[in-house]
What we know:
Blueprint: H1 2-13, H2 23-30, E1 35-39, E2 45-52, E3 59-63, H3 74-80, E4 85-89, H4 107-120, E5 126-131, H5 133-144, E6 149-155, H6 175-179, H7 183-189, H8 195-206, H9 214-224, H10 229-233, E7 257-262, H11 270-279, E8 284-288, H12 295-298, H13 300-312
Parallel strand pairs: 3-4, 3-5, 5-6, 6-7, 7-8
Antiparallel strand pairs: 1-2, 2-4
Amino acid sequence: MRLIILGLAALGLSACVAGDIPYEELEARYGNAASRYLELPSGLRVHYRDQGLPDAPVTLVMVHGFAASLHAWEPWVGRLEGDYRLVSLDLPGHGLTRAPEGYQSSPEDQVAVVDALAAELGLSPFVLAGNSMGGGVAWRYALAHPQKVRGLVLVNAAGWPQAADAEGGGDSRPMVFKLLENPLGRSLLRNLDPRPLAGRGLRQAYGDEALVTPDLIDRYVELARAPGHRAILTDPRRRSAAAPVTAESFAAITVPTLVMVGALDQVIPAERGAGFAQGIPGARLITYADGGHVPMEQLPDRTVADLRDFLGSLPPAP
């Protein structure tokens, strides 16, 4: 019955077909003076920004969530660039990062992209922050490269192993995640204009109507229509990790960790996001009673204040 309902919903949306938007047009619209690009041997052209103080005592690398982009971190960048070095990037299939035709993303590939950028920029041990899917990238990076991580910040992070779905669970999820669970929905989403789903899904994620402006919707919709992005976003293999992770696996993360959770998150239930604070030794949990899935955008002043406290508590860099 569920598949039938989803199929009917998808068929109703199938008339809203939209083609790709050329990268040149998107870069002109959503790039800025801080935008840089890294060419990787895999054929990826990674969009990133390296802002703030180059010689700051703390470098913060930030990884966005599913279907988002590095723009999600702009509220933090604007408040922190006077005191820290801030690096943000677009993962493959997102933002202004270009991927070759047929590129297949996976959790390990996403970790490798972050590592390649860190090597290119010559980053010494840094603090790694991630939201949602980007939180999953962050904790996987900390497990794979513990010597390179000075601190970990998980913001409504995905991937707590008790979760049935890395992006969330339950009936309150945005429709796009339900469509991604079946072949019919994925097939249509590859050619679908994201706009009919975007407004409602963003309102559920942000939890604040005032934040979901026409410009925000345009950015999500238009970047999703970059060449090849929808194929990567709808590929079920993007969440298939090579090695399983259990709750006990997180005991191997020994760096200072801050877990931020919005209690009103409709994408990843708050108790799942908070699970990392139980699994990672010594992790500090902060729950925002009025926060949604993206508290760094919804509550920038409060989250930045808590982040500053955390960064100030880190041991001196080696």
